[in-house]
Amino acid sequence: MSVESEKIILDETQMNNVINLLRSAKGLMEMTSLGNLIKITVLFDEKQYLIQMTENETISVYRLTH
Questions:
Q1: CA nearest neighbour of 54 among 28, 35, 30
Q2: What does the buried/exposed string (b/e) look like for 19-36 if buried means 16 or more CB atoms within 10 Å of the residue's CB?
Q3: Total structural domains in the chain?
Q4: Which pLDDT score is estimated for 1?
Q5: What is the pLDDT along the chain (66 residues), one digit of tens a residue?
Q6: d(CA 5, CA 8)
Q7: Domain of 29?
Q8: CATH code for the domain in which residue 47 is found
């Protein structure tokens, strides 16, 4: 299954909202850890988002489109 994604650039407020969403675990669908890469899939406002965090704490957010 191929999943297309669109990278989203977040400002500080939006990133804080993402972090708060993860802390509350609302809509948490899947979380995987592959070595030093953490991938988290969340459902927010009826849309799926993939959040990736690398070992140097770089966070990328993608809105998934099917």
A1: 35
A2: eebbeeeebeeeeeeeee
A3: 1
A4: 46
A5: 456 777 777 788 877 777 777 766 556 667 777 777 788 887 777 888 888 887 777 888 888 876
A6: 9
A7: 4-65
A8: 3.10.450
Q: Which of 52, 48, 42, 50 is nearest to 22 (CA)?
A: 42
Residue 2 has which token pair?
């191929």
What is the pLDDT at residue 2? 55
> Strand 4-8 vs strand 28-34: parallel, antiparallel, or unpaired?
unpaired
**Per-residue confidence (pLDDT) for residue 61, from 0 to 100:** 83
Distance, CA of 22 to CA of 34 (rounded, Å): 18
Alpha helices in the chain (DSSP H): 12-24
Q: Which amino acid is at 28?
A: L
Nearest 10 degrees: Cα torsion 61, 3, 37, 55: -40
